[in-house]
Specification:
122 residues, alpha+beta, N-terminal domain of TfIIb, two-stranded antiparallel ribbon
Amino acid sequence: MNKTSNLFDNKVLCKNCNKEMKKKIIAKHGFEIRVLECLDCGNKIIHPGDEEEYKKYEGLRNKTYKVKLRVVGNSYAVSIPKEIVNFMREQERMMDDMVRLCFDDMSKLKLMFKKKSMKNGK
């Protein structure tokens, strides 16, 4: 059986200066992106899987959805498009089906899917 290994599990030499590249994690919009970086020349290699997932996120982030505001009993409801929920579940960022909602500014609401992203423990 041919076992595939992860590039980031191996020693990688910089193509510019032939020195060993160091593993690093870059945090970007809640994502942890694995990177190999040459400390001498600054050359970087981004993990292809992490880069692909981040591009999916960017595609959803730059998309605007028109959804209806509906009355349900004494509350209002807004449906979240399935592709957003599916992406959140894929990323294992959804703790459970409960979400937190708060004002971000006067014309903006914030919907949080995981406990870590809450400010001041609210």
